[in-house]
Design a protein that fits this description.
Elements: E1 3-13, E2 16-25, E3 31-35, H1 42-56, H2 64-73, H3 82-103, H4 107-110, E4 119-124, H5 137-153, E5 158-161, H6 173-190, E6 195-199, H7 206-216, E7 223-225, H8 233-242, E8 247-249, H9 256-264, E9 270-271, H10 280-293, E10 297-298, H11 306-316, E11 325-326, E12 339-340, E13 344-346, E14 351-353, E15 363-364, H12 366-369
Parallel strand pairs: 4-5, 4-11, 5-6, 6-7, 7-8, 8-9, 9-10
Antiparallel strand pairs: 1-2, 2-3, 4-14, 12-15, 13-14
Length: 392
Protein backbone atom coordinates (compact mmCIF):
# COMPACT_ATOMS: atom_id res chain seq x y z
CA UNK A 1 0.00 0.00 0.00
CA UNK A 2 1.35 3.42 -1.00
CA UNK A 3 0.38 7.07 -0.79
CA UNK A 4 -0.74 8.04 -4.27
CA UNK A 5 -1.51 11.75 -3.91
CA UNK A 6 -2.65 14.46 -1.50
CA UNK A 7 -5.65 16.62 -2.31
CA UNK A 8 -6.76 19.86 -0.65
CA UNK A 9 -10.25 21.35 -0.49
CA UNK A 10 -10.92 24.90 0.69
CA UNK A 11 -14.29 25.82 2.17
CA UNK A 12 -15.03 29.42 3.12
CA UNK A 13 -16.80 29.55 6.49
CA UNK A 14 -17.35 33.19 7.42
CA UNK A 15 -14.27 34.33 9.37
CA UNK A 16 -11.96 31.55 8.19
CA UNK A 17 -11.37 29.17 5.31
CA UNK A 18 -11.53 25.53 6.31
CA UNK A 19 -8.72 23.59 4.64
CA UNK A 20 -9.53 19.89 4.30
CA UNK A 21 -6.73 17.51 3.35
CA UNK A 22 -7.38 14.16 1.71
CA UNK A 23 -4.54 11.64 1.59
CA UNK A 24 -5.25 9.11 -1.17
CA UNK A 25 -3.74 5.62 -1.28
CA UNK A 26 -3.37 3.23 -4.19
CA UNK A 27 -6.00 0.98 -2.59
CA UNK A 28 -9.46 1.65 -4.08
CA UNK A 29 -11.65 3.67 -1.71
CA UNK A 30 -9.00 3.98 1.01
CA UNK A 31 -8.14 7.54 1.99
CA UNK A 32 -7.92 9.69 5.10
CA UNK A 33 -9.17 13.14 6.09
CA UNK A 34 -7.22 15.85 7.88
CA UNK A 35 -7.64 19.58 8.44
CA UNK A 36 -5.17 22.45 8.14
CA UNK A 37 -7.34 25.49 8.82
CA UNK A 38 -5.21 28.51 9.72
CA UNK A 39 -7.03 31.81 9.43
CA UNK A 40 -5.40 34.47 7.24
CA UNK A 41 -2.77 31.97 6.07
CA UNK A 42 -4.75 29.80 3.66
CA UNK A 43 -2.47 30.22 0.65
CA UNK A 44 0.64 29.68 2.77
CA UNK A 45 -0.69 26.42 4.22
CA UNK A 46 -1.72 25.13 0.80
CA UNK A 47 1.80 25.83 -0.42
CA UNK A 48 3.33 24.07 2.59
CA UNK A 49 1.23 20.95 1.93
CA UNK A 50 2.34 20.98 -1.69
CA UNK A 51 5.96 21.28 -0.58
CA UNK A 52 5.60 18.22 1.68
CA UNK A 53 4.15 15.98 -1.01
CA UNK A 54 7.48 14.84 -2.55
CA UNK A 55 8.44 13.40 0.85
CA UNK A 56 5.28 11.29 0.99
CA UNK A 57 4.23 10.10 -2.47
CA UNK A 58 4.98 6.39 -2.85
CA UNK A 59 5.48 5.85 0.89
CA UNK A 60 3.61 3.44 3.16
CA UNK A 61 0.75 5.46 4.77
CA UNK A 62 0.69 3.37 7.95
CA UNK A 63 4.36 4.07 8.73
CA UNK A 64 3.04 7.13 10.50
CA UNK A 65 5.87 7.93 12.90
CA UNK A 66 8.48 7.56 10.17
CA UNK A 67 6.50 9.89 7.90
CA UNK A 68 5.99 12.40 10.71
CA UNK A 69 9.71 12.48 11.42
CA UNK A 70 10.39 12.85 7.71
CA UNK A 71 8.07 15.83 7.40
CA UNK A 72 9.47 17.45 10.55
CA UNK A 73 13.19 16.86 10.05
CA UNK A 74 13.79 16.89 6.31
CA UNK A 75 14.25 20.03 4.17
CA UNK A 76 16.67 21.29 6.88
CA UNK A 77 14.09 23.61 8.52
CA UNK A 78 12.34 21.79 11.36
CA UNK A 79 8.57 22.03 11.31
CA UNK A 80 8.25 24.41 14.25
CA UNK A 81 6.67 27.30 12.34
CA UNK A 82 2.88 27.40 12.54
CA UNK A 83 2.37 27.10 8.76
CA UNK A 84 4.63 24.07 8.42
CA UNK A 85 3.38 22.37 11.59
CA UNK A 86 -0.23 22.95 10.50
CA UNK A 87 0.48 21.27 7.17
CA UNK A 88 2.17 18.36 8.98
CA UNK A 89 -0.76 18.13 11.39
CA UNK A 90 -3.34 17.78 8.63
CA UNK A 91 -1.42 15.02 6.89
CA UNK A 92 -0.77 13.24 10.20
CA UNK A 93 -4.49 13.29 11.09
CA UNK A 94 -5.31 11.83 7.68
CA UNK A 95 -2.73 9.06 8.10
CA UNK A 96 -4.25 8.03 11.43
CA UNK A 97 -7.69 8.10 9.79
CA UNK A 98 -6.32 5.67 7.20
CA UNK A 99 -4.83 3.42 9.88
CA UNK A 100 -8.14 3.24 11.71
CA UNK A 101 -9.89 2.29 8.48
CA UNK A 102 -7.28 -0.37 7.74
CA UNK A 103 -7.97 -2.01 11.10
CA UNK A 104 -11.69 -1.23 11.12
CA UNK A 105 -11.63 0.65 14.45
CA UNK A 106 -12.02 4.28 15.59
CA UNK A 107 -8.77 6.13 16.14
CA UNK A 108 -9.19 6.19 19.92
CA UNK A 109 -9.06 2.39 19.96
CA UNK A 110 -5.66 2.52 18.27
CA UNK A 111 -4.38 4.33 21.38
CA UNK A 112 -5.67 1.88 23.99
CA UNK A 113 -9.42 2.40 23.86
CA UNK A 114 -11.74 4.86 25.56
CA UNK A 115 -10.87 6.12 29.05
CA UNK A 116 -14.26 7.83 29.52
CA UNK A 117 -17.89 7.40 28.52
CA UNK A 118 -18.56 10.95 27.35
CA UNK A 119 -16.92 14.30 26.70
CA UNK A 120 -18.41 17.62 27.74
CA UNK A 121 -18.55 20.42 25.19
CA UNK A 122 -18.43 24.15 25.77
CA UNK A 123 -19.44 26.96 23.44
CA UNK A 124 -17.98 30.40 22.79
CA UNK A 125 -20.08 33.54 23.32
CA UNK A 126 -17.76 35.76 21.31
CA UNK A 127 -16.10 39.03 22.24
CA UNK A 128 -18.82 41.62 22.54
CA UNK A 129 -18.51 44.96 20.80
CA UNK A 130 -14.77 45.58 21.00
CA UNK A 131 -15.08 48.94 19.28
CA UNK A 132 -17.40 50.23 22.02
CA UNK A 133 -16.29 48.20 25.05
CA UNK A 134 -15.45 51.33 27.04
CA UNK A 135 -18.22 53.57 25.73
CA UNK A 136 -21.04 51.13 26.54
CA UNK A 137 -19.84 48.94 29.45
CA UNK A 138 -23.36 48.34 30.79
CA UNK A 139 -24.69 47.35 27.37
CA UNK A 140 -21.76 44.98 26.87
CA UNK A 141 -22.30 43.35 30.25
CA UNK A 142 -26.01 42.87 29.58
CA UNK A 143 -25.26 41.44 26.14
CA UNK A 144 -22.89 38.88 27.65
CA UNK A 145 -25.54 37.95 30.23
CA UNK A 146 -28.10 37.34 27.48
CA UNK A 147 -25.67 35.18 25.52
CA UNK A 148 -24.77 33.22 28.65
CA UNK A 149 -28.42 32.51 29.39
CA UNK A 150 -28.97 31.33 25.81
CA UNK A 151 -25.98 28.98 26.05
CA UNK A 152 -27.51 27.26 29.05
CA UNK A 153 -30.87 27.08 27.26
CA UNK A 154 -29.03 25.33 24.42
CA UNK A 155 -27.87 22.69 26.91
CA UNK A 156 -24.29 23.84 27.57
CA UNK A 157 -23.02 23.52 31.13
CA UNK A 158 -19.94 25.57 30.27
CA UNK A 159 -19.13 28.49 27.99
CA UNK A 160 -16.32 30.90 27.18
CA UNK A 161 -16.35 34.60 26.39
CA UNK A 162 -13.87 37.30 25.49
CA UNK A 163 -14.98 39.57 28.31
CA UNK A 164 -11.58 41.26 28.63
CA UNK A 165 -11.13 44.31 26.37
CA UNK A 166 -7.94 45.14 24.47
CA UNK A 167 -5.55 47.09 26.66
CA UNK A 168 -2.30 48.94 26.26
CA UNK A 169 0.72 47.59 28.19
CA UNK A 170 -0.47 49.61 31.18
CA UNK A 171 -3.88 51.16 31.83
CA UNK A 172 -5.97 52.22 34.80
CA UNK A 173 -9.09 50.73 36.34
CA UNK A 174 -11.55 51.30 33.50
CA UNK A 175 -10.85 48.08 31.54
CA UNK A 176 -10.62 46.08 34.78
CA UNK A 177 -14.03 47.30 35.89
CA UNK A 178 -15.49 46.65 32.42
CA UNK A 179 -14.33 43.03 32.55
CA UNK A 180 -15.60 42.62 36.11
CA UNK A 181 -19.02 43.92 35.08
CA UNK A 182 -19.30 41.47 32.19
CA UNK A 183 -18.30 38.44 34.24
CA UNK A 184 -20.51 39.49 37.16
CA UNK A 185 -23.52 39.70 34.84
CA UNK A 186 -22.77 36.30 33.32
CA UNK A 187 -22.40 34.69 36.74
CA UNK A 188 -25.63 36.31 37.88
CA UNK A 189 -27.40 35.00 34.77
CA UNK A 190 -26.34 31.34 35.08
CA UNK A 191 -25.52 30.78 38.75
CA UNK A 192 -22.79 28.60 40.17
CA UNK A 193 -23.88 25.39 38.41
CA UNK A 194 -22.49 26.53 35.05
CA UNK A 195 -18.76 26.85 34.35
CA UNK A 196 -17.57 30.18 32.95
CA UNK A 197 -14.30 30.64 31.09
CA UNK A 198 -12.82 33.96 30.02
CA UNK A 199 -10.48 34.26 27.05
CA UNK A 200 -8.11 37.25 27.20
CA UNK A 201 -6.90 36.31 23.70
CA UNK A 202 -3.35 37.15 24.83
CA UNK A 203 -4.19 40.84 24.52
CA UNK A 204 -2.89 42.02 27.92
CA UNK A 205 0.68 42.57 28.96
CA UNK A 206 1.80 40.42 31.92
CA UNK A 207 1.14 43.42 34.20
CA UNK A 208 -2.42 43.91 32.91
CA UNK A 209 -3.02 40.16 32.75
CA UNK A 210 -2.18 39.94 36.45
CA UNK A 211 -4.71 42.66 37.24
CA UNK A 212 -7.46 40.97 35.20
CA UNK A 213 -6.71 37.60 36.82
CA UNK A 214 -6.93 39.02 40.33
CA UNK A 215 -10.07 41.03 39.57
CA UNK A 216 -11.91 38.03 38.09
CA UNK A 217 -10.76 35.51 40.70
CA UNK A 218 -13.82 35.97 42.96
CA UNK A 219 -16.14 34.75 40.18
CA UNK A 220 -14.77 31.21 40.27
CA UNK A 221 -13.80 30.87 36.62
CA UNK A 222 -13.26 27.36 35.25
CA UNK A 223 -10.16 28.82 33.62
CA UNK A 224 -8.71 32.12 32.44
CA UNK A 225 -7.24 31.80 28.97
CA UNK A 226 -4.14 33.50 27.60
CA UNK A 227 -3.87 36.36 30.12
CA UNK A 228 -0.73 37.50 28.29
CA UNK A 229 1.29 36.65 25.19
CA UNK A 230 2.17 32.94 24.96
CA UNK A 231 5.81 33.95 24.51
CA UNK A 232 5.74 35.51 27.99
CA UNK A 233 6.27 32.25 29.86
CA UNK A 234 7.55 34.03 32.98
CA UNK A 235 4.47 36.25 32.94
CA UNK A 236 2.14 33.27 32.61
CA UNK A 237 3.93 31.48 35.43
CA UNK A 238 3.70 34.52 37.71
CA UNK A 239 -0.04 34.94 37.05
CA UNK A 240 -0.66 31.22 37.50
CA UNK A 241 1.12 31.30 40.86
CA UNK A 242 -0.69 34.42 42.05
CA UNK A 243 -4.32 33.30 41.68
CA UNK A 244 -6.41 30.22 42.36
CA UNK A 245 -8.06 30.48 38.92
CA UNK A 246 -6.50 27.87 36.59
CA UNK A 247 -4.59 29.55 33.76
CA UNK A 248 -5.02 28.08 30.27
CA UNK A 249 -2.79 28.51 27.22
CA UNK A 250 -1.16 26.55 24.41
CA UNK A 251 -3.20 27.12 21.26
CA UNK A 252 -0.36 29.10 19.67
CA UNK A 253 2.40 26.66 20.59
CA UNK A 254 3.26 24.31 17.78
CA UNK A 255 5.73 21.70 19.00
CA UNK A 256 6.76 19.58 21.97
CA UNK A 257 9.74 21.69 23.06
CA UNK A 258 7.57 24.79 23.43
CA UNK A 259 5.19 22.91 25.72
CA UNK A 260 8.16 21.50 27.63
CA UNK A 261 9.31 25.02 28.49
CA UNK A 262 5.77 26.13 29.38
CA UNK A 263 5.15 23.19 31.70
CA UNK A 264 8.59 23.42 33.31
CA UNK A 265 7.82 27.01 34.31
CA UNK A 266 4.34 25.98 35.52
CA UNK A 267 2.89 28.55 33.15
CA UNK A 268 -0.54 26.95 33.08
CA UNK A 269 -2.89 24.42 34.62
CA UNK A 270 -4.80 23.80 31.39
CA UNK A 271 -3.05 22.85 28.13
CA UNK A 272 -4.94 24.04 25.05
CA UNK A 273 -2.97 22.27 22.36
CA UNK A 274 -4.55 22.51 18.90
CA UNK A 275 -4.43 19.23 16.99
CA UNK A 276 -4.46 21.05 13.65
CA UNK A 277 -1.46 23.24 14.54
CA UNK A 278 0.80 21.24 16.87
CA UNK A 279 1.71 18.43 14.46
CA UNK A 280 -1.41 16.25 14.62
CA UNK A 281 -2.05 13.18 16.76
CA UNK A 282 1.57 12.06 16.71
CA UNK A 283 3.01 15.18 18.36
CA UNK A 284 -0.10 15.79 20.48
CA UNK A 285 0.28 12.38 22.12
CA UNK A 286 3.80 13.34 23.25
CA UNK A 287 2.56 16.71 24.53
CA UNK A 288 -0.32 14.99 26.36
CA UNK A 289 2.05 12.57 28.09
CA UNK A 290 4.18 15.49 29.24
CA UNK A 291 1.09 17.34 30.48
CA UNK A 292 -0.02 14.24 32.37
CA UNK A 293 3.37 14.00 34.05
CA UNK A 294 2.88 17.57 35.31
CA UNK A 295 -0.79 16.91 36.22
CA UNK A 296 -1.91 19.57 33.76
CA UNK A 297 -5.39 19.23 32.23
CA UNK A 298 -6.08 19.03 28.49
CA UNK A 299 -8.77 21.20 26.88
CA UNK A 300 -7.96 21.48 23.17
CA UNK A 301 -8.38 24.61 21.12
CA UNK A 302 -10.99 23.82 18.47
CA UNK A 303 -12.73 26.75 16.71
CA UNK A 304 -12.06 25.34 13.25
CA UNK A 305 -13.92 22.96 10.96
CA UNK A 306 -15.55 19.55 11.44
CA UNK A 307 -12.41 17.44 10.90
CA UNK A 308 -10.72 19.34 13.71
CA UNK A 309 -13.70 18.61 15.96
CA UNK A 310 -13.72 14.90 15.15
CA UNK A 311 -9.97 14.74 15.80
CA UNK A 312 -10.27 16.63 19.11
CA UNK A 313 -12.95 14.20 20.30
CA UNK A 314 -11.12 11.05 19.18
CA UNK A 315 -8.07 12.31 21.04
CA UNK A 316 -10.13 13.07 24.14
CA UNK A 317 -11.56 9.59 24.45
CA UNK A 318 -8.02 8.20 24.79
CA UNK A 319 -6.45 10.83 27.08
CA UNK A 320 -6.85 10.59 30.88
CA UNK A 321 -6.08 14.29 31.53
CA UNK A 322 -8.68 15.55 29.03
CA UNK A 323 -11.46 17.59 30.70
CA UNK A 324 -13.56 19.45 28.10
CA UNK A 325 -13.71 20.25 24.37
CA UNK A 326 -14.38 23.55 22.62
CA UNK A 327 -17.40 23.34 20.33
CA UNK A 328 -18.42 25.48 17.38
CA UNK A 329 -21.99 24.69 16.41
CA UNK A 330 -23.39 27.86 14.86
CA UNK A 331 -20.56 29.57 12.96
CA UNK A 332 -22.27 28.88 9.62
CA UNK A 333 -25.81 27.52 9.17
CA UNK A 334 -24.70 24.86 6.69
CA UNK A 335 -21.93 23.33 8.83
CA UNK A 336 -23.73 19.99 9.11
CA UNK A 337 -24.20 19.86 5.34
CA UNK A 338 -20.50 19.43 4.61
CA UNK A 339 -19.82 16.52 6.96
CA UNK A 340 -21.20 13.20 8.10
CA UNK A 341 -20.06 12.58 11.67
CA UNK A 342 -19.72 9.34 13.62
CA UNK A 343 -20.01 10.79 17.12
CA UNK A 344 -23.34 11.70 18.72
CA UNK A 345 -24.11 14.88 20.67
CA UNK A 346 -26.81 14.87 23.32
CA UNK A 347 -28.55 18.24 22.75
CA UNK A 348 -29.86 18.32 26.32
CA UNK A 349 -26.46 18.02 28.00
CA UNK A 350 -24.06 18.91 25.15
CA UNK A 351 -22.03 15.81 25.82
CA UNK A 352 -20.59 13.46 23.21
CA UNK A 353 -20.44 9.67 23.21
CA UNK A 354 -17.64 7.85 21.36
CA UNK A 355 -17.58 7.50 17.60
CA UNK A 356 -17.97 3.86 16.55
CA UNK A 357 -16.91 4.22 12.91
CA UNK A 358 -13.38 3.48 11.67
CA UNK A 359 -10.75 6.17 11.81
CA UNK A 360 -12.06 9.65 12.55
CA UNK A 361 -15.56 8.44 11.74
CA UNK A 362 -16.32 11.29 9.36
CA UNK A 363 -16.91 11.83 5.68
CA UNK A 364 -16.58 15.22 4.00
CA UNK A 365 -19.24 15.87 1.37
CA UNK A 366 -17.08 17.36 -1.34
CA UNK A 367 -20.00 18.54 -3.46
CA UNK A 368 -21.18 20.68 -0.53
CA UNK A 369 -17.69 22.05 0.08
CA UNK A 370 -17.56 23.26 -3.52
CA UNK A 371 -20.58 25.49 -2.84
CA UNK A 372 -18.37 27.62 -0.57
CA UNK A 373 -15.13 28.37 -2.44
CA UNK A 374 -12.20 30.30 -1.05
CA UNK A 375 -12.74 33.92 -0.08
CA UNK A 376 -10.16 36.23 1.42
CA UNK A 377 -10.77 36.51 5.14
CA UNK A 378 -11.66 39.97 6.41
CA UNK A 379 -8.76 41.59 8.29
CA UNK A 380 -9.33 41.58 12.05
CA UNK A 381 -7.77 44.72 13.43
CA UNK A 382 -7.60 46.26 16.87
CA UNK A 383 -6.37 49.74 17.67
CA UNK A 384 -5.77 51.10 21.13
CA UNK A 385 -7.47 54.32 22.10
CA UNK A 386 -4.38 56.34 21.22
CA UNK A 387 -4.31 54.86 17.70
CA UNK A 388 -1.46 52.42 18.28
CA UNK A 389 -1.62 48.81 17.13
CA UNK A 390 -3.24 46.32 19.47
CA UNK A 391 -3.62 42.55 19.59
CA UNK A 392 -6.80 41.12 18.10
Amino acid sequence: MKIERIETLVCHARMRNWIFVKVMTDQPGLYGWGEATLEWHTRSVLGAIEDLQPLLIGEDPIAIEKLWQTMWRQHFWHGSGVVRSTAIAAIDLALWDILGKVHGVPCHRLWGGPVRDRIRLYCHLGGGDLERFYETPVDNANAFADLAAKATTDGFSAFKSMAVPPTMPLEGLQPIRAAEACVAKMREAVGDEVDIMVDCHARPSPAMGMQFARALEPFGLYFLEEPCWPESIDGLAAINAAVSTPIATGERLTHLAAFRDLFAARGCEVCQLDLTHCGGFSEASRIAALADAHRIALAPHNPQGPVSTAASLEFGFAQPSYVICESVHSDVPWRDDVVEEGFLVDPKTRTVTPNLRPGLGIEIRESEVKKHPFEQELPQRVWYRDGSVGDW
